[in-house]
Design brief:
- Strands 1-2-4-3 form a four-stranded mixed beta sheet.
- Helix content is about 50%, strand content about 5%.
- It is mainly α.
- It has ten helices and four strands.
- The chain is globular.
- It has one domain.
- The two termini are about 25 Å apart.
- The structure holds zinc ion.
- Zinc ion (ZN) binds next to helix 4 and helix 7.
Length: about 250
């Protein structure tokens, strides 16, 4: 889970321009299904944000034939429940080629060997971050935002990839999207941290901050920018440190 945006083409655009996004991961793919993506309110944490009422879009399948099934640990399932989603499918990637961790709509999280070698709390933060992307359907939110910015109609059920492809070669549109991505990444950071606190007893210091301090991936934002981005993310998490302590204390 590093500072890469959801869409590689856009990412390369922004990296070349030395524009730093606060993003960490990627999301998108597979067909969206109301049944599969339905939220199970039982067990959902009262503090977890409500999913915005955006339409569901469809996505072209993006299979990972080299991935293997991963049995989720009980705290991972609890984080999903706290976020209001009933089931998350976990896969293990063979390497970090596509990043340390990423989520695929509507309910899949892919973890690399590097992610699985993190400390328990750093990994819990990474998974909580990805669960937040799925639970809040950031991939569908992006389609609505992009369509609005590009003056295109929003058609529920339409193929989300077709809208996302509008970003290809459109640096101006990517720039307009970057604040929305930053907001989603920040939301995934703080909500993911609190999921890790409540489900795993992990403080932000042992989860997100430990992960960001150990983060040496340079795949997003450029070498100089990477450190600065992590510092920004840590600073923006500080208002949530006390809440995480309270939730972590209650988890024991
Ligand atoms: Zn992310």
């Amino acid at each position: 889970m590093q500072k890469w945006t959801r869409y590689p083409t856009v990412r390369s655009f922004l990296i070349k321009a030395s524009i730093v996004l606060a993003g960490v991961c990627c999301a998108v793919a597979a067909p969206a299904s109301d049944t599969e993506n339905s939220h199970h309110k039982d067990g959902k944490a009262g503090w977890f944000p409500d999913t915005p009422p955006v339409p569901h879009f469809s996505w072209r399948p993006r299979p990972c034939p080299s991935c293997t099934e991963l049995t989720p640990a009980t705290p991972w399932r609890k984080m999903a429940s706290l976020a209001g989603i009933g089931r998350v499918h976990f896969l293990r990637a063979p390497d970090e080629r596509n990043g340390i961790a990423y989520s695929v709509a509507p309910a899949t999280i892919v973890l690399s060997p590097a992610a699985l070698s993190l400390s328990r709390c750093a990994l819990s933060f990474v998974i909580g971050h990805e669960i937040t992307h799925l639970a809040l359907r950031h991939y569908d939110q992006d389609v609505v935002t992009l369509a609005f910015l590009a003056h295109q109609p929003v058609i529920p059920g339409a193929n989300g990839d077709d809208i996302i492809q509008m970003l290809d070669g459109d640096f101006s549109l990517a720039l307009k999207m970057s604040p929305y991505w930053e907001a989603e990444e920040h939301e995934a950071d703080w909500a993911g941290s609190l999921l890790a606190a409540q489900a795993c007893g992990c403080t932000i210091e042992k989860g997100a901050i430990a992960f960001l301090h150990s983060n040496t991936d340079e795949s997003g934002g450029g070498i100089a920018a990477a450190h600065e981005t992590d510092q920004t993310r840590i600073r923006e998490l500080k208002p949530f440190i006390r809440s995480a302590h309270i939730l972590a204390d209650g988890a024991h």
